[in-house]
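User: For a benchmark we're assembling, each entry needs the component sequences followed by a predicted structure for the full assembly. Here are entry 17's components. Please fill in the structure.
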Amino acid sequence: MNHQQLFENIVSKRSFLCIGLDSETGRIPAALHTSDDPVFEFNRRIIDATHRYAVAYKPNVAFYECNGIGGWKSLGSTLDYIKKNYPEILVIADAKRGDIGNTSKMYAREFFENMAFDAITVAPYMGEDSVTPFLSHKDKWVILLALTSNSGADDFQYHVENGTRLFEKVLSASQKWGSINNMMYVVGATRAEMLKDIRRIVPDHFLLVPGVGAQGGSLEEVSRYGMTDRCGLLVNSSRAIIFADNSENFDKTAALKAAEIQAEMERYLSGRGLI
Amino acid sequence: MNHQQLFENIVSKRSFLCIGLDSETGRIPAALHTSDDPVFEFNRRIIDATHRYAVAYKPNVAFYECNGIGGWKSLGSTLDYIKKNYPEILVIADAKRGDIGNTSKMYAREFFENMAFDAITVAPYMGEDSVTPFLSHKDKWVILLALTSNSGADDFQYHVENGTRLFEKVLSASQKWGSINNMMYVVGATRAEMLKDIRRIVPDHFLLVPGVGAQGGSLEEVSRYGMTDRCGLLVNSSRAIIFADNSENFDKTAALKAAEIQAEMERYLSGRGLI
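Assistant: Structure for entry 17:
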């Protein structure tokens, strides 16, 4: 999937919603715990209920890896289920990997060849050769951390050299490594006002924006400061959708929450004249 | 294992060698490929042949993860084998993880609770709350990336604010998060001269130093600039030991290579009056 195809999916679904499948075992409704694979069963029902409102799903790999081999099976089953039933949806491995060149190549092989993820989040600290092995896979995306939504973002991401903050240097340096068709950036919604500065550096790239909902970011502000004439935004919501209801009707409630967000997104897309 | 115990192991073995178990399937001698688990069989023979020369083993998780569920089994078997047979040896998951607080907690659970690793490498880009969940586990270590050995290290790690380079800020800021008993830093041997500057900021912490051997770093220089009165160094060698020989005698050759490095390390420890 390239930049234009992703935009067309956004237009078609009238949504730029990414749903985070951070499916922590301890938070899954009790009724599912008798299933062979409660995490997959939870995800399957969330996906069936919400797919019409989403253009991307983003399982955070940590929530699967912490269940060992069973967790990797849940992750693989979830990915296969989406690919088989909703092939138009981008699936992002939120893995935040990154290592020296020959090692990043191994991670790329796992997520893009053995598993059929469309995109992976990558940490930039180790620089170019830690990122480019992920970019050599056709039709796959790197989503590079730039400005994250957590409190620790303040520790290093604002380190400033001659007026250029570290996250800005990440944005500018990495543009030479890929293109708008295979690279996006993580920019936290809790710093929506920064999107103005960020759009000066990356006017056209898609941004993956976490932090709306549970972390307090505003979808209206993100859209105002970050939207381009090809949308250019994937806004993620995880817990506010998937854990909105702990009852047996969790999937119906998740669909309602996703639909609410989609309706708000539709207004912003329409206001911008994109639909 | 704390700082003092690690130093005592170094004195006892007259070595500060960490052996990197970057056991890429395609580079394992053909004779092992008939085994049920060639990667584990390779590691087992390497470990049995080299354990007397090493104070640490460091499997890079990428080389296991890229084999899917089978790879995680190989990694688990390798860890269990070391813990059962050579319990004095520190085992490091070279995983370079790091995510927002509630997510890093999941990674910590996997590597420190489900698996019995003693230490994990962590990427610093996301700051304090991405690192501290790993530090709340008793007797476990975080090894934070500071100055890495790859070419991409130049891209961001030297970003300088008021004379403080990013890797120096990582070193100074993170000292508030842990202590010399639960935090080490990765400093590449290819930048040995930088160890003088680094020792001004972290005079006592252990440093994990990759890049000796295949990547061209000098053990003599690393020891001269980096050694403290409690050694303070774990120097890693991976490919130069484990892939020194592709024949059926690979383990004997690995032992010879490890013994050579240990002998050189013994000279530096002795020269410093530590043994």
